Amino acid sequence: MPESQDRLAHRGSGDRETIGSRERKDSGETKKQKSFWRELPLLIVVALVLSFLLQTFIARVYLIPSESMEPTLHGCTGCTGDRIVVEKISYRFGDPRPGDVIVFKGPDSWSTGYKSTRSDNVVIRGIQEVGSLVGLVPPDENDLVKRVIAVGGQTVECCDDQGRVLVDGKPLDEPYVKMDFPFTPGVLTCETELKSGRCFGPVTVPEGHVWVMGDNRSNSADSRWHVGDESQGTIPLDNVIGKARMIVLPPGRWGMIDSPEIQ
Fold it and tell me: Are 218 and 228 a contacting pair, CB within 8 Å?
């Protein structure tokens, strides 16, 4: 009997220890769950702040909405527009160079046809503005993408006898141009009665500005279309947002964006 009682007593003590362990484990898990839900708002705020800093000072993704940079960047009617990463650090330490593909805020004279993407509802518009700060909503501005052709102090014009763009009298090497206005030596040039649509200039680019053109020369409302404004179609460097570095979407279009030496 004493031995049996000892065994029963031992078992009873073990059961109490097991129950106590389970209670402590359940209590620990409950505390962890409460701790997670208390920390979640802070984690969200930190993530939003990091997103704001990243997209304001380092890089941002932009959607290509038009055909002006075909075939380098897709934005054709009926197709899925490319989404590109625009890096903002390089131009804090240097200026854009000929051949760079840049995103910039279009001057007021370039805003013809641009419509705000914001809602007329005050509440929804406020949410959109906040979303834009952290990159969840596109910015409400006339952001454009083109290629730099000439920089401050250079004179740009078209064309030579082969229909090429000239900068300071020298023809550019532009392998990315696949679509352009017709140019036929002796028939349709800048000297014939009926001029080629390629012809423009000469224009001397003011210091602190760049002359930009789309790769799709026959379908791009670029600097050539705005030579009558106060800056002769050039873009102030202050308007430049950053350099287009790579295509990230759609997956089949993933790749780096080339910035060749064109001069």
Answer: no
67 φ, ψ to 5°? Answer: -95, 5
Residue 240 pLDDT: 97
Confidence of residue 7 (pLDDT cuts 50, 70, 90): very low
Same domain, 50 and 129: no
The count of structural domains within the chain is 2
Q: Is residue 261 part of a domain?
A: no
Exactly one of 146, 220, 231, 243 is catalytic; which is it? 146
Give the residue among 198, 192, 193 at the shortest CA–CA distance from 213.
198
- The residues, any chain, with a CB within 8 Å of residue 138's CB and separated by 6 or more, are 62, 63, 117, 132
Torsion of CA 212, 61, 76, 69, to 10 degrees: 20
> Are the beta carbons of 202 and 155 closer than 8 angstroms?
yes
DSSP for 83-131, written as a single string = EEEEE-SHHHHS---TT-EEEEEPPGGG-TT----S-SSHHHHHHHHHH
* Structural domain for 34, as ranges: 1-57
pTM to 2 decimal places = 0.78
Same-domain check for residues 44 and 141:
no
- Which residue out of 68, 223, 231, 259 is catalytically annotated? 68
Confidence class for position 55, pLDDT limits 50, 70, 90: confident
* Same structural domain, 66 and 103: yes
Q: Is 146 a catalytic residue?
A: yes
Supply the pLDDT for residue 43. 80
